[in-house]
Amino acid sequence: MPERLNDRVEACYQLAEDFFKQPFKRPQVSLKLRGLKAGVAHLQQNLLRFNEQLYRANTEHFLQQTVAHEVAHLVAHQLYGPRIQPHGEEWQLIMRGVYELPPDRCHNYEVIRRQANRYIYRCKCPEQEFPFTGQRHALVRKGRRYLCRSCRATLVFSGEQRLE
Q1: pLDDT tens string 133-163
Q2: Among the options 70, 100, 129, 160, which is catalytic?
Q3: Phi, psi of 26 (to 5 degrees)
Q4: CATH 3.30.2010.10 fits 3-98, yes or no
């Protein structure tokens, strides 16, 4: 785990403790998030997951904004309970009041998508094809069936694959 990331999580908690005059339980922190999201706060598990690829490509902004964003979710949950809106007024209060940051809901980091193999399935409809992921293709091989929404025929693997 990068030291700067852990240091920023701790700094965010210390700011919240100074602001609210109470201690907060520290979360487990992971860099095992992939895909489009920069970070996720798992409220019930008191866990923060961050996207390592986006962290490395956008380190300074990520440390400043994304880490505070996710910590604010856990702090809001510990303060106000599970019934609050994820980006509601309680979370926004923490972002603005504690961290003095804009309560931005989404990042605008460039996400580099890796190419993935797609398995082409077809039905009875002309010119219709369905690119399946490897995971979905494996489910079909284990017996799962998928139907075309138009003709209701079972989708069948064509034998074709392509990179997308």
Answers
A1: 999 999 999 999 999 999 999 999 999 999 9
A2: 70
A3: -75, 145
A4: yes
